[in-house]
Amino acid sequence: MILCPGCSAELTPEPQGGLICGRCAAPVVIRDGVIMFHPEVSGSHGGMNPGIYEELARVEEKHFWMRARAEYITSIFEELVAKKAKIIEIGSSTGNIARVLAKSGYSDVAAGDVHASALAFAGAYGIKNLYQFDMMRSPFREHFEAVGMFDVFEHLDDEAGAVENILRMLKPGGLVLATVPAHMWLWNREDAVASHRRRYTVSRFRSIFEKAGLSVLKARYFFASIVPLLLLRSLSHRDRGEVLAEDFMNRFKVNTVINLLLGKLLDAESRFFSKVNFCCGGSVLLVARKNT
After folding, report:
1. Do 81 and 107 touch, CB atoms closer than 8 A?
2. Fewer Cβ atoms within 10 A, N terminus or C terminus of the chain?
3. What is the rounded distance in angstroms from the CA atom of residue 63 to the CA atom of residue 123?
């Protein structure tokens, strides 16, 4: 069900496609196809600069890391989540993962983000269900079979609160699939520029979900093949303790040849080593199930 952000009563669909509260009769605003639950925080919120989305939309289908990550996440969905499952990607940014899932045959995929400007790109990708909301005040209760949060937790101060809200959003037996950047010893200037709070080990990330009562089905490192390059970056691009305007310039620009080679490297890792439990990696993947 979906709850009214004002009085917490269940919202009902309107004939014209909107939502209205049966108790307080308050309508939920729809703006450019986006259902706005918390419009007061839609411009800027948390640790993400909304100005980044146009740049992301230009590069995410070609950038070696973004493309390989989307393909890896999709492979995990195809292994564990039914094609007809009701899915939401939270902190979706431009909705790139939701778009790839829809292209691979998932028929009920939603994108959710606090930034309405991000969801405009998701809508342009063809995602029909677009929800603007603050996940710490999620309006959804036992509404989804699967919740995805990909490189979101590292931006949050309240990890436990985020997991509690995911639990409320999931139907019994539903899955949460999440990724985060790995290892504090790989911390670098880009982490600071991206407003990350932390990087994770598998055990650290796993414990957050287990403490909330979820059953962890998978918890592993991936993108192990580029760890040497990430370590080199951490040494050559150290966090200076301050973020300068120049740090935001050409953040996602990669030499064409290098982009091609790194893409092939990650493709090979995914193809030949997808079942290997690496001792380290560039990122962490976790899949957990809601038991009740």
Report:
1. no
2. C
3. 21
Burial class from Cβ neighbours inside 10 Å (0-12, 13-18, 19+) for residue 16 reads exposed
Mean pLDDT of 249-273: 93
pLDDT digits 0-9 by tens, 191-232: 999 999 999 999 999 999 999 999 999 999 999 999 999 999
H helix runs in 95-188, sequence order = 96-103, 116-124, 159-169
CA 165 remoteness from chain centre: 15
DSSP element (H, E) containing 109: strand 108-113
Phi, psi torsion values for 291, nearest 5 degrees: -85, -40
Distance, CA of 112 to CA of 143 (rounded, Å): 13
What's the CATH superfamily of 32-289?
Vaccinia Virus protein VP39 (3.40.50.150)
Both tokens of 210, joined, read 């287990």
- Residues 22-51 have pLDDT tens digits of 888 877 888 889 999 998 887 655 555 666
